[in-house]
Amino acid sequence: MRARLLSIAVMSLALAACGSGNLRGDGPPSSGDSRIPDLPGDAIPRPEARSKYGNGPVYEVFGKSYRVMPSSKGYRERGVASWYGRKFHGNLTSNREVYDMHAMTAAHKTLPLPTYVRVRNLQNDKSIVVRVNDRGPFVHNRIIDLSYAAAARLDMLHDGTSLVEVTAIDFDTPAGDRPTRNTTPPAPVAEPPVLAPAETPPDTAPAPLARTERIFVQVGAFGDRSNAERRLAVLAASGIDNAFIHEDLASTPPLLRVRIGPVAEVIEYDILVEQLENIGITDPYLVAE
């Protein structure tokens, strides 16, 4: 469940991000309206002042402290996305805006508010741009909570969660080096561009072909083979039998990367993360290739 306002006087933090991953009935249709709204285009990145609310620098939820990043520059992370919808529609977000489940927004625990990020679904390669204006998800092993509309655009409503890559769009980077795909208003479905007449429902547009990209969990990179083999032995002793050593000749010097997988579903990743934590490995890294 979602944390609520912890201390209005001290924190000014309205916690509207749930991240529980989510109830199938948490989206449209709403009462008295059976029409599912057209899906919006991407959020349009633009420079904005930091919000007076929700930016910490430190806040606490469920007894755990979170430190807000001083800047989003260079932020890129892979992990699990969840979504939140009708249950929080109309409530205040952490920066005191009204949560609109039909807008392209998201919640994040530590990025400055607001921040624009590109979210790529690693399981189908669909990509969107959202504006982070809320805090959450305060659920273990979740990195971002998407609005209903954003989750619909990534085709993750049914499962409730998906493996994603989140990349911040900053305004210190020269324009030519910034991600540019979908930063102007697209057709209702982001990829591929929809050329059908406007009356064609967005959810009937052809889906992009799935990529053959596979997802692995990396649990160490070593310059010495004996160290890599020791990590492999620890994994095998704990019952993780699909680990292997990937020799990365592109790095200088070459690195031996210990990986597990491929991982196809969020539930597999969740179970694997718990197994790794039980043997003291707390910093797994998702690799998509």
Number of helices: 3
User: Which segments are poorly predicted (pLDDT under 50) over 5 or more consecutive residues?
Assistant: 1-21, 31-35, 179-209
Largest beta sheet: strand ordering: 3-7-4-6-5-8
Outline the biggest β-sheet: 6 strands, mixed, barrel
Assigned CATH class of the largest domain: Mainly Beta
Question: So, CATH architecture of the largest domain?
Answer: Beta Barrel
Q: What is the CATH homology-level superfamily of the largest domain?
A: RlpA-like domain
What is the total domain count? Answer: 2
Number of strands: 12
Secondary-structure element pattern, one letter each: EEEEEEEHEEHEEHE
Distance between the termini: 34 Å
Shape: globular
Rounded to the nearest angstrom, the radius of gyration is: 20 Å
Describe this structure in words.
With 289 residues, this protein is α+β, with helices and mostly antiparallel strands. The chain folds into 2 domains: 1-211, Barwin-like endoglucanases (Beta Barrel); 215-288, Alpha-Beta Plaits (2-Layer Sandwich). It is 11% helix and 25% strand. The protein has helices spanning 148-153, 225-237, 266-278, and strands at residues 58-61, 64-67, 76-84, 105-107, 115-121, 127-134, 144-147, 162-169, 215-222, 243-248, 255-260, 285-288. The strands form 3 sheets. A 6-stranded mixed β-barrel has the order 3-7-4-6-5-8. 37% of the residues are buried.
